[in-house]
Amino acid sequence: MTAESPSRPVAESPAIEISRLVKTFGDAVALDGIDLAVPQGSVFGFLGPNGAGKTTALRILTGLARPSSGAARILGTDVSTAGNVVRSRIGYLPDVPGFYPWMTATELVEFAGRLFAIDRATLRERARSLLEMAGLADVRTKVGGFSRGMKQRLGIAQALINAPSVLLLDEPTSALDPIGRRDVLEMIASLRGRTTVFFSTHILADVDRVCDTVAILDRGRVVANAPIAELKRRAAVDRLVMEVDGDPTALVSELRSRPWLRSLEQSDSQITLAVTDVKSAQRELPAAIAAAGLGLKRLEGAEQSLEDLFVELVRHAEQ
Amino acid sequence: MSGFSTFLAKEWVEIRKTWRIWVIPGMLLFFAITSPIIADVTPALMASISKSQPGVVVKMPPPTWRDSYAQLLKSLSQMVLIAVVITGAGAVSGERSSGTAVLTLTKPVSRGAFVLAKIVSQAGLLIAATVVSTAVCAVLTVVIFGPSPLGPLVMSVSIWTIDALLMIVVMTLFSAGFAARGASAGAGLGFFFLTLLISIWPPANKYSFVGLPSVSGRALMQQPTGALWPVVTALIASGLCAWGAVRVFEKQEL
Q1: What's the pLDDT tens digit per position in B186-216?
Q2: Are the beta carbons of A167 and A191 closer than 8 angstroms?
Q3: In what side-by-side order are the strands of the sheet with A77-78?
Q4: For residue range B28-76, what is the model confidence (pLDDT) as tens digits?
Q5: Vertex B241 angle, CA B236 and B245, to 5°
Q6: Where in chain A is the domain with CATH 3.40.50.300?
Q7: Contacts with A, B 108-127, CB within 8 Å
Q8: CB B167 within 8 Å of CB B192
Q9: Which one, of A136, A206, A127, lies nearest residue A171 by Cα?
Q10: Is B39 in contact with B62 (CB distance < 8 Å)?
Q11: How far apart are CA B55 and CA A281, in angstroms?
């Protein structure tokens, strides 16, 4: 608790709590009343297409930007008024990290640590181990000569220098090669339970791999927010795959008029349906296939990938 | 002010390791060395020009230590102040556009500390370079012109330094306020030439900081300087601009 900001006891609060957060730039609405609660110690994926508002939300959480209305709290403290109280407990990696080109990786990480007033011995030891983790311990060249991937890894190392309670990562794997990406995801996964990791991305496989919970953001609105397993389970029930014997063109156009159909994809004789009422669909489909003069070869519930769900939710929000 | 000393230490190292160590100190040192030499050779140069043009007679008194100091002051008041404008234009906007401001300001560093460290580091560099250059000029003047009084040089350069420090703070304000380095440089040059223009008006020259170059000149001539109003208003303006730079930067979203 601090005198400079309204706070609540940390133990009762989610690590990150966003309520009715709005951010506008003139007439453009970047965030349109989003609500989120990120449990402490979780790895939270903040998913959305480019321009959805992910970076804007992170800028507000770090105090770099101010909300137009609504509130954002980290560890129970309002970020718009808390200043250094919050910043001393977070680590942040921006989407395009900027570094002083004349510094070496060690100088950069130690500079970041000194800003947190970490004592010299601890700082030296921590900087060494973080640079080893980032694969930069033996790099002696100046940061100005680093590749984008090296800068990204250095960005993660500096973001961890204060052993943050909350780690905010904006597209942390976007510039990495497959091995670097795997290493970063493993590092993120290893923080589970100790540090709350909130990372934005548009790479669905990353979220699928390490996140406990995910929020999907589109055009400034949260269109889904749930544990990842629940999202996938929920989606799987609403999805059917069938294969028919014969040309399904007439059947497809007939099915498009059904009220329970959300979307339909056809690939040769295989038709994948996203439905709002799976029981009605299962009851009516065999009759529709027979009426179209086709034979039914297969009809089953489909496992929906996170990518399918993401595309579907974003399309649905657009409509 | 949270993070001030660490960020200031970074600024010192940055000055030492980058081009910043060469520009202002390099210019100051160059003018410190060349001013006594130019003062010494100018009469001979003028005489040779007049010889090549029949009918033209140029008579100049023998050069003295005062010509050496005046040559230095002229360079400081024009070239070095313009260099201060150009280099100061990117003080804050450069960090903002390169993303390094985000790196620093998402840590426990206040924006006030960020801006003030920028001002202090630039001011420190300018003062250190000015002291060294003044000493070099004084020594060379003695070597070329014989025993020379130090007081007029120290007094006039000190007055100029107050003017240059004000320019540093003004440029930090512009750099905090404008997103582009070019825009803040343009505003700085506009400010520089506007003050020159206003200084033509006697009351402004007498009672405001625009009169500092005149005060500096009078100090060199060992005349009564009337330094009080120009110096006091320069200090007040510097304080207001520093406060303004912090406020402007605090209000900005990065």
Answers
A1: 999 999 999 999 999 999 999 999 999 999 9
A2: yes
A3: A28-38, A16-25, A69-74, A77-78
A4: 999 999 999 999 999 888 888 777 777 777 778 899 999 999 999 999 9
A5: 155
A6: 16-227
A7: 108-110
A8: yes
A9: A206
A10: no
A11: 111
> How far is A76 from A37, CA to CA, in rounded Å?
11
3-state secondary structure of A21: strand
Residue A80 has pLDDT above 90, yes or no: no
Structure token digits, residue A50:
């480019």
Task: Please report the beta strands in A87-180, taking only residues with DSSP state E, as ranges in sequence order.
Answer: 90-93, 166-170
Q: Please answer whether residues B148 and B138 qualify as being in contact, where contact means their C-beta atoms are separated by less than 8 angstroms.
A: yes
Mutate to test the interface with A, among B12, B106, B121, B251 (most CBs of A within 10 A): B106
Longest CA pairwise span in chain A (Å): 79
Beta strands in B31-139 (DSSP E): none
Say yes or no: A70 contacts chain B, CB-CB below 8 A: no
* Residues forming CATH 3.30.70 domain(s) in chain A: 239-303
Token reading at A101? 């080109």
Say whether A278 sits in a helix, a strand or coil: helix
Distance, CA of B144 to CA of B61 (rounded, Å): 16
- What are the DSSP E strand ranges found in B144-253? none
Q: How many CA atoms lie within 13 A of A293 on its CB side?
A: 4
What is the C-alpha to C-alpha distance for residues B2 and B4, in angstroms, rounded to an integer? 6
Q: Which two tokens stand for residue A271?
A: 């038709």
Question: Nearest-CA residue of chain A relative to B17?
Answer: A102
The ipTM (two decimal places) reads 0.89
Is the CB of residue B98 less than 8 Å away from at least one CB of chain A? yes
Residues in chain A closer than 8 A to B94 (CB atoms) = none
Note whether B213 and B156 are within 8 A (CB).
no
Q: Write the pLDDT tens digit of every residue in A230-240.
A: 877 766 657 78
Decide: A303 and A208 in contact? Cβ < 8 Å: no
Task: Name A38's bridge partners.
Answer: A16
Kindly report whether the global pTM for this prediction surpasses the value 0.90.
Answer: no
Exposure letters B159-179 (e unless 16+ CB within 10 A, then b): bbbbbbbbbbbbbbbbbbbbe
Q: Answer for the pair B246, B119: CB distance below 8 angstroms, yes or no.
A: no
- Quick one: A283 exposed, middle or buried, by C-beta within 10 A (0-12, 13-18, 19+)? exposed
User: Under CATH, what is the fold of the domain A239-303?
Assistant: Alpha-Beta Plaits (3.30.70)
- CATH superfamily, domain at A16-227: P-loop containing nucleotide triphosphate hydrolases (3.40.50.300)
A vs B: CB pairs below 8 A: 67
Of A132, A35, A49, nearest in space to A310 by CA: A49
- Structure-block tokens of residue A148: 């984008």
